[in-house]
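Researcher: Quick test of sequence recovery. C-alpha cells follow.
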C-alpha cells in the first residue's frame, strides 16, 4: 500500500474497531475507506454535493454540509471526513454536535483547523473535533 490508499486503510481499520455506523462527508468518487468499513460490518453512508456517476458499492446521499437537511431519525456514531476544505469545518463540527456523533478528520500534513481538538494516532494523525455524549 502506498499513498492515500494506505492512509484510508489505516483510518478504516481504526474506525472499524470502534464504531458501528459512519457517515463520510465529502467522499467524492473515492470510496476506498467507506468500502473497507462496510466490509468490516459497519453501516456506512457516503455523502457529497452530488452523487458520482460511477459504480458505487456503498450507500450514497446528497448532503450540503453547509446547509444540511437530514431526516430526524438519522443516527450515526461517527462522522468522518478525509481532506476536507477548511470552509467545511465549522459546519461539520456543528452537525456532529446536532447528531451527537464523534467527528474525525484527516487533514493533509500542512492543513489544520484552529478549533480545539485531540489528536488520535491510528498510524496517521486523526483530529477528533467532537466527542459524542453517552
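Model:
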Amino acid at each position: 500500500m502506498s499513498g492515500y490508499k494506505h492512509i484510508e486503510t489505516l483510518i478504516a481499520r481504526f474506525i472499524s474497531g470502534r464504531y458501528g455506523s459512519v457517515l463520510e462527508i465529502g467522499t467524492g468518487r473515492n470510496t476506498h475507506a467507506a468500502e473497507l468499513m462496510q466490509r468490516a460490518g459497519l453501516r456506512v453512508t457516503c455523502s457529497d454535493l452530488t452523487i458520482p456517476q460511477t459504480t458505487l458499492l456503498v450507500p450514497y446521499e446528497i448532503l450540503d454540509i453547509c446547509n444540511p437537511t437530514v431526516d430526524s431519525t438519522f443516527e450515526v456514531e461517527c462522522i468522518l471526513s478525509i481532506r476536507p476544505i477548511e470552509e467545511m469545518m465549522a459546519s461539520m463540527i456543528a452537525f456532529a454536535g446536532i447528531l451527537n456523533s464523534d467527528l474525525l478528520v484527516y487533514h493533509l500534513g500542512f492543513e489544520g483547523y484552529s478549533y480545539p481538538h485531540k489528536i488520535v494516532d491510528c498510524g496517521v494523525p486523526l483530529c477528533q473535533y467532537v466527542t459524542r455524549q453517552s
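The radius of gyration is 14 Å.
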